[in-house]
Structure formats: C-alpha cells, structure tokens
Design brief:
Helix content is about 50%, strand content about 15%. By secondary structure, it is of the alpha/beta class. Helix 3 runs antiparallel to helix 4 and helix 3 crosses helix 7.
Length: about 525
C-alpha cells in the first residue's frame, strides 16, 4: 500500500486549527438551527429531536464520505476545498430558509398543518449538504496528519479531542453571546465566515493566488443577504404594526400594536399572546383577567385580604398590572427568565417603576427564582410560563407545586393557565391530579372563546361555592373590573376531574401529552375550527 509523503509534525498545526474551527462551526450551526426553526415552530423537544437526529445523520454521512475521499485524494488542497464549500453552504442555509420560514409562519398562523410540516422538513433538508461537508473534516484530517502507523491512535485521538473542544465552544458561544447580539441569521454568517477565512487561507497555502477564485462566495452571500433579509420574519397580523423585533438567548420577540393602541407581546412561533397592554385600560377580556379570581375561592375572602403576589412568567407584566390596578398597595414579585422580555416590557408595556412601583422584577428561571423568596409570604402565586401549546415540564410537577405552596400564606392560592381542546382535557386533568397531591382543593374555569382553562389550588380546604359567596360580600367601592371578572369566572366554572397521570420531577411527559392532544385536534378538523370554518 502506498501512502502520501510524511509531512513534518509542525506542519500539522494549521490542520489542527482548521479542525477546531470546523468542530466549532458544526455545533454552532446545530444550535442555531434550532433557533431558526424555533422562531416559527417553537422549541419543544420534538423540534430539538428532529434537529439533533438529522444533524447526526448528516455527520454520519460526512464521516463515511470524508474517510473514503481522503484515501482517494489525500491532499490538503482537497481538504480545504471541502471546508470552504461547507462554509459557503452554511452561510446560504438561512438565506434559502427565509422564504420557506415566512411561508411556514403563515401556515402555522392559519393552522395549515400540512404546509407547516412540509416547511419544517424542507428547512431541515437544507442542512444536509453543508453539515455532511463539515462532517468530512475529522476523518480527512486524520488521514493527512498520520505520518507513522505506530502513532495513528495518538494522532486520531488528538484530532477528535481538538474537534470536540471546538464543538464545546460552538455549543455555548452562540447561545450565551452571539445570538443575543447579532441574531440567528447573523450567527450563521459569523461562524460560516470564520470557517471560510480559515479554509481560504489553508487553500492559499496550497495553491497560492489560484485560491482567490473562491472570493465570489462572500460577495454572493452579501448580495443575497441584502435581498432576502429584508423585513420581519413574521409579518404582523391583520392591521397590526410591528413596533419591536429582537432575538434574545431564549426567544424570538415581537411587539405588535393595533390601531387603537393595544399592544401584544409575541414569542417564538407567535401562536400565543404573552402580554397585552392598552393605554389606561387594565382589563384585557382575555385569559389574564381570570388570574384575579384566585384568592376568592377561599372562604370569606375580601379585597382587603390581598397582600402580596408572585408571578412566575412575568412577561410584559399584564397580570401584575391588573393586580396593581385593583390593589394599589399590593406587594408584587415577578419572575421572568428572559431579560430581553423584561426590557421590552419596560419600553412597550409600561412595566416600569413609575407605572408599577410595587413590582419587583426578578430575572431568573421560574423554579430557581422561587427559592430566593420568603416562605409563607404570598397571598397568590400566579403561574403563567405558558409557551403555547406547552408548559415547561419542570413547572408542572408535584415537587414544583410543593415549592409554590411553601411560599403561600395560610389563605393563599396558586393559579395556573392550562391548554386544552374542546374535546380533549387530558392536560387539564393531569395537572388537576398533580395539584391535588399538594393542595386540598382545586377549582377550574374554562376561559370563554379560548383553548385555556384556569386552575386554582387553595392552601386551605375550599368549595366552589365560595366564589359566589365572596361576590355577594364585595364592598360597594370594589372596582368594576374585579366585579366583572368574578361574575364571568362564576359563569365559567366547570367541574374538576383528576386523571391517573401525575407529573413528578422523575416523570413528567407534558410534551408527549400535548403533542398527542394537538395531533388529535388537527386530525379531527381542528384547523377548520381555528379558521372559523
């Protein structure tokens, strides 16, 4: 068997640098791919599983092809040429995906499951060639670096270690730093650009000025970027105006405004409104209003008994604003994981010290943030960390609700928003069963004209009739908004039914249950219901 001439060991240094950058780019592209899809399809485990699974499939193909190609053409020029094409195609992916994702956004908004699913598949297929090209890097580099069969194991181990170290950097750097600063599309271009420069320089070392023929690649990407990346990824619905659009480490964020001044906070796929604000009007006529009812399921509760509130999933502060409107002296803590949402809330939803002086904002994960609060000090704990159609699983378990109960006073109540369909209440029933492991009583209200049910759990034993009794005892000066909400809640009460499924930290199949719920809904004609057909 003939082998390529052995190169001096020091000549492998740039090869190792290239392998490091290739590994970093590969994982960076994988992480950003989930964000690319997440802006339209959400960030559920289903999305992640498809992204990771197909990326591994493409890398598998790259390892196989790279090894065979390296044996047939063990030249560094071939190695760098493969990577320069991989870099170019990585930069082209978000540009090619943009029109597909825009079409998908309309499909998701219109509940067109076929088009939405097809769009997701199309975007994932776009990664096939660039990721396969990047996958050739390690086996090709091993073939080039091995100078003696006796040291082949050491050399291959070194290359895989360097590649993996690059992958580690590519896992954390985009999420923690790059995406919040330059966005998803900018992150694609940045990492692809770094790999392109490294590969071009390596190719220049091998071929000299002839390598400059590939300078057309960044020029074409720049031209396409100007053409394709024009306008918002998800256009405002109807007659709404886009006030704000940004990407954070956690979310794709939009703020839209209607002609009457009402503003909506939309996240990721935009299927749920996470906050609403209308000048000088606290009532929304939507799900948030029902959070005001929570303490009134206790026996003999009066407005003066409302002392403190903690909101898990503060978003733009809609719930806190309503409580502050009804109870001017109430003490409020709001927990929100995303600082960019807090900033948007301050700028566009009046969530600031001047308008809401009693609100203390805590930027932290909902469950972790609870642990820094004073036990037994809250009248109401409102849980609104809903990402339609999902609730973060760690905010649905027996152990989590025990932490919530420990924060509540003797007459405290917890309230949570849960999704359902007109015929499928499995998630509602499972959360009811879970809450009953911690609280003695649970009450339910179906929010009219929505797919939401509000569950209220009380620290003390309570009866559904308490709500009606407390309404009759309301003082004459009770704000009209509270009276109207309580009256609507009374009419919206439904019997609770606990299922056999109980969510725990060890087993909480929330997403599996919701995926089944959504699929059954769409297969039974739910899309037509959403469209009013």
């Amino acid at each position: 068997m003939t082998t390529a001439p052995a190169a001096p060991a020091k000549s492998n240094l740039y090869l190792y640098v290239t392998v490091f950058i290739s590994g970093m780019t590969t994982l960076a592209v994988e992480m950003v791919a989930s964000r690319l899809l997440g802006s339209v399809f959400g960030t559920s485990n289903l999305v992640w599983a498809n992204v990771i699974g197909l990326m591994l499939l493409y890398l598998t193909a790259g390892y196989f092809i790279g090894g065979r190609w390296a044996d047939r053409s063990p030249r560094r020029a071939t190695f760098y040429t493969l990577l320069i094409w991989g870099a170019f195609l990585c930069a082209a992916v978000p540009l090619a995906a943009r029109p597909v994702l825009q079409a998908a956004a309309f499909a998701v908004a219109g509940a067109n499951a076929g088009v939405a699913l097809g769009s997701a598949v199309a975007v994932l297929i776009l990664f096939a060639v660039p990721i396969t090209a990047l996958g050739t890097a390690s086996p090709f580099a091993i073939r080039l670096a091995v100078v003696d069969i006796a040291s082949a194991g050491k050399t291959s181990g070194r290359i895989y270690a360097i590649s993996t170290l690059g992958s580690l950097i590519g896992t954390f750097l985009p999420v923690l730093l790059i995406i919040p600063e330059v966005g998803t599309f900018g992150t694609f271009i940045l990492f692809a650009g770094i790999l392109y420069v490294v590969a071009l320089y390596g190719l220049f070392q091998e071929r000299g000025p002839r390598a400059l023929i590939y300078l057309w690649m960044p020029a074409l990407i720049a031209i396409l970027s100007v053409i394709v990346l024009n306008g918002a990824l998800r256009a405002p619905a109807g007659n709404a105006t886009l006030l704000y659009e940004d990407e954070s480490a956690y979310n794709y964020i939009q703020v839209q405004e209607l002609p009457d001044g009402t503003r909506y906070l939309l996240l990721n796929e935009g299927q749920g409104v996470h906050s609403q604000w209308t000048p000088e009007i606290a009532a929304t006529g939507r799900t948030w209003d029902f959070f005001l009812t929570a303490p009134y399921f206790n026996a003999a509760f009066a407005p003066d008994d409302m002392e403190s509130l903690v909101v898990i999933g503060l978003a733009g502060g809609t719930i806190a604003r309503q409580y502050g409107e009804i109870y001017p002296d109430v003490r409020m803590d709001g927990i929100e994981i995303d600082p960019a949402i807090v900033e948007a809330g301050a700028r566009y939803f009046d969530m600031n010290a001047e308008s809401m002086p009693n609100l203390n904002v805590i930027v932290e994960d909902g469950r972790y943030g609870l642990r820094g609060l004073e036990p037994g000090s809250y009248t109401v704990a409102a849980i609104d960390a809903y990402r339609p159609p999902y609730i973060p699983w760690h905010l649905t378990t027996v152990e989590f609700f025990r932490e919530v109960r420990d924060l509540l006073s003797a007459d405290g109540a917890a309230v949570i928003n849960v999704g359902r369909t007109p015929t499928d209440r499995r998630l509602v029933d499972a959360l009811t069963a879970t809450l009953l492991q911690v609280f003695p009583s649970v009450h339910a209200m179906d929010v009219p004209l929505s797919f939401n049910t509000i569950l209220v759990a009380t620290v003390q034993q309570s009866a559904p009739e308490n709500l009606a009794s407390n309404i009759t005892r309301l003082p004459a000066d009770t704000p009209l908004m509270l009276r109207q909400v309580l009256d609507l809640a009374l009419r919206s009460q439904v019997p609770v039914q606990a299922s056999d499924l109980i969510f725990t930290d060890d087993r909480a199949p929330v997403e599996t249950l919701v995926d089944s719920l959504v699929l059954n809904f769409l297969l039974s004609g739910g899309a037509e219901q959403l469209q009013g057909g």
